[in-house]
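User: I'm curious whether this sequence folds into something compact or stays loose and floppy. Could you predict its structure so I can see for myself?
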Amino acid sequence: MRDQQRDQQRDQQSREEFQPGMRRFFTRPRECAFCSDKSAKIEWKQVEVLRRYVSDEGKIRPRRQTGSCAKHQRELARAIKRARHMALLPFSGEVLR
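Assistant: Here's the prediction. I'll summarize afterward.
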C-alpha cells in the first residue's frame, strides 16, 4: 500500500514539474538574411557565404539552424551543390587519412 502511495506522489510531482505542452525555453524565429537584405544574392561563386550554411561534416544545415525561409533555403542548397560540382566546396568535411 505504501508503495502505491509513494508512486502516486512521485507521479503527481512529475506532472506538476513537466506539464504537457509546456516548453522549457523559447527561441524566437530568426529572420531570413536574404529576405531582410535584398542586395544579398545567392550564387555558387560566393564560397565564403556558402560555407556558413555547411556543417563541419560537409552537410547542408537545415532551415531551423540557418533561419532562412523555404525559398532561400532551396536556393542555398542548389548553390552549394553547384559549388561542390565545380570543386569550390568539398563534398565531405575533413580529409580522411
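Summary: The chain has one domain: 30-97. The two ends are 63 Å apart (CA to CA).
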